[in-house]
Amino acid sequence: QVQLQESGPGLVKPSQTLSLTCIVSGGSISSGGNYWSWIRQHPGKGLEWIGYIYHRGSTYYNPSLKGRVTISVDTSKNQFSLKLNSVTAADTAVYYCARTYYYDSSGSFDYWGQGTLVTVSS
Amino acid sequence: EIVLTQSPDFQSVTPKEKVTITCRASQSIGSSLHWYQQKPDQSPKLLIKYASQSFSGVPSRFSGSGSGTDFTLTINSLEAEDAATYYCHQSSSFPYTFGQGTKLEIK
Fold this sequence. Notes:
The structure holds 2 protein chains of 2 kinds. By secondary structure, chain A is an all-beta fold. Chain A has strands at 3-7, 11-12, 18-25, 34-41, 47-53, 59-61, 69-74, 79-84, 93-103, 106-112, 116-120. In chain A, strands 2, 4, 5, 6, 9, 10 and 11 form a 7-stranded mixed β-sheet that branches. Chain A is globular and about 40 Å long. In chain B, 0% of the residues lie in helices and 50% in strands. In chain B, strands 2, 4, 5, 6, 9, 10 and 11 form a 7-stranded mixed β-sheet that branches.
């Protein structure tokens, strides 16, 4: 069974860059038909899709994040990463990585990491 | 951006009751609608994909229906372990979006 695990700093200072990595196990990140997403959840709130990447490098980002996001993939390590720059307190959230299973040109999030809380504070 | 509106926001129900949660999309999304269950301090789990397909390992009391703009998640014979927040999600167009969530409390 596919498993995902997020890692990265739990505390980031305002204006700096949030960096997280998601390690995939139990399956290859290069397997066809799957994209790899980042999703966040503000404390006590709903879910927000940040964006995703295909193993060949193509990406799509949520415009709400106004160009602050970069998602990259390292197939040799079977992992993908998130960078969010110029963070503010509004970026404080639990960040999840998830596999996006693609069928008929649309995707569902079938496997999720446990999530990691990132707090933006000086 | 497609807006998904769930109803109700909160429901208090008794075990063995049948529960229906609805999700309405601001424009037609075909069958590109998925349902997730999130228990406190856990990550969301996929229940139903593409409106009506059960995900592997999900109990048969969970079912989904609908297409276009109106969708329904049904839980037959509710169990205490079903206390959670339920979210719908659309993947018809970018950016992917979620409903605001429906919290189920078990009496």
